Amino acid sequence: MNGRILIIDDEPHNLNILRIFLNSLHYEIFTVEDGKEALSMVKENTPDLILLDVMMPEITGFEICKQLIAENDFDTPIIFLSANAQKEDILHGLRLGAIDYLTKPFDLDVLERKVEIALQQKAELKTLKKDNKQLAKLVYVDALTGLYNRAYLEIIIRMIKEGTKKFHAAMMVDMDYFKDINDSFGHLVGDQVLREVAAIIQSKICWENDLAFRYGGDEYLVLLKNEENCLEIADNIIKAVDSLKVSLAPNRSQEFSVSIGLTTNFDPSSFVQIITQADSALLGAKNSGRHQIKIR
Fold first, then answer.
1. Do residues 264 and 154 share a domain?
2. What is the number of domains present in the chain?
């Protein structure tokens, strides 16, 4: 099928002509004669195009169009089909948000082309929205590690303060002796290690509830929904990094490890305090010999 078209008209004869003609063009057709039923039909069938009669009992096509356009997520093009050929009616329909207004009796060849154009515009809009969504995602994702970045963290901080996002533990994860890795093996290997550690962190948390960020350099921030198993998650991250294998220079091997600072004293009103506590715990882990977990 080339597209899903909903035809709304209270005259069965008109519906039948349009249905037969558009079916012959391989479109998937839905028809409805009642205006009120049409509003629910749109939500149930999510058409790609609506052909809408103006004059109908109980509720006019203009009112249907007005109600549909008022929906925040509504993006289906509407073409009015009406016997009302007055300039005022045509302009009114277009002002409401319809993309076209054809007067009855209409030429089927013209209708075919109008439908084709409307569906093409709908497809282009869908592609554009998909591209924009992907671009928006890239804005909030760290290019190297694939984790969320500081820009997205700022959004999450606002949501935490507003109460729309809730977490109960935070951890800072930091590579041990990362400068030595860069100095000994080069920055390309260092970047690969950062990616591998990020993948480990992502694999050990619950993707539905928890969030992981590249906080800066070789440091990661993890926000956890539940505090009951946060120590277990931290321990799993440490063990997984211990087993990390990265291709180095020929006949050279290197052990990798991380230190983790963990806090469950999660005050949503002061994110600075949360980060300070996690940082303080991380510093304690570093000062105690690294490769361990400290809780504050």
1. yes
2. 2
